[in-house]
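Bug: token stream looks shifted between consecutive jobs. Job 1:
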Amino acid sequence: MTLWIDAEPDMFGISRMYEYCYQIGEWTWIWSSRVDECARDFEKLIDRLQEFAPDHLPVICLGHHSNFRYAVYPQYKANRAWVRKAPGYGAFREWIQEYYATLSFDNIEADDVIGIKAEPGDLIYSKDKDLKTIAGLHLEPDGTVVEVTKVEANRRLYKQILCGDTADNYKGCPGVGDKHKLFSQERWNKPNNTEEKFWELCLMEFAKAEKLFKQRGIEEVPFAHAITMARCARILRSGEYDFENKRPVLWRGPS
């Protein structure tokens, strides 16, 4: 059994803790990183996770430098363009790849790797709430294990398609927010809802919002825009990556 670790949120936070600014001349300042301190804290994190899951082999999942979602929706994560990584972040990542079992695939993110590879009995660790759209056993930072059912994973996913995600800079369906009335209705909360049903409910909301598209600058028709938002929101699942051609299988709706 495997403990799949989406380490990048932790890596970013750790690396920013150990960056320093030094004055080396009257008019000259430089940024510096202590990668050894980053490595120490990362080792502590992995040791703690292994204590929580001693029967699982930890695998660190990392994102590729290219991301298919940039082509799907050019504004995807454009709001992060100004976010500066610590100067030693690249060296920190290389150290992790040298000393730990790691896995990444071309053109996708770390959470996609987990969505593709996780199997029943495995554990998933991430500080990113988006991974709760993947059904399975999730290891929390405090050691608690939470089971996310397939229905609940789909309910979270399709809500995110409708609401969008400000952190990743995609807007979802115009006029739909976290408190939208749909999310409190019985038809949304049925315990046996299928993925097809959630998709049907999503498409209904996109169709109803069409009159808002022009004022929001959306040029796609409702169905096409729903597919675009879904491809931004949906973490890849088993069978949704073409290993031969090293690219994701673009989602076209539940099959």
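Job 2, same session, no restart:
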Amino acid sequence: MADQENPEETTTPAPASPAAGAGDPDAATPKTATEEPAPEAPATGGAGPTDRAYEAAADETAAAEGAAPDATAAEPEATAADEPAPAGDAAMTTPPAQTATPAAPAAPQAPPSTPKERKVAGRARRGTRRPATPEERDELRRQKAAARTRRRASEKAKRGETRGEGTPRPDHGPGAPKVRLGKVVSSKADKTITVRIEVARRHRRYQKIVRSSTTLHAHDERNDANEGDLVRVIEARPMSRTKRWRLVEILERAK
């Protein structure tokens, strides 16, 4: 019972006799319970209380002796973890899925052919940096003005080349001016008469005579026409804001 209650209690060896100590030096050295070999466990059945006490004491002694070496061994492990791994190890530890495959050589691009493609390529070569100083902005303006001049000259040359080809333009002679007959309704203005033109035509659906009238201003250079005269006027160049006609002759005087 005492062994089961306090399994860590060690047994004190009996003192050796002087006669035995004088003859055998090993017999004078006291032996502790930890140095005694633990009894072998029986082949069948569980360990007894005494065996468990011996095993617990042996574990404590081994833990006390291995604490110091473990503390000193932790420092080299930490140092080894901080050191970078060699290149060969890194290459070996890299998974095959993450290794970069060599890129295939890019196919040579065809030179830009259209003006839009050339413009985009030129912008890519120049970059997108905007001029920051007034001198740079002036230089950019001069370059753009020179480019516009060249473009307009080329377009003008192209128009000149295409103009000589194909069907020539028809030559139009002077058109026939309009001529109207009307009655003078006013001659108060200087060198200007107001003529009323009466038109009577048959309606195209109801076949009824429809009468309408319009007034116009005509130029009378000699102030010869009077109110009520029947005159002939002809279309002419614009002489004022409303005067586009000219007096040709007086056909009948007013009575």
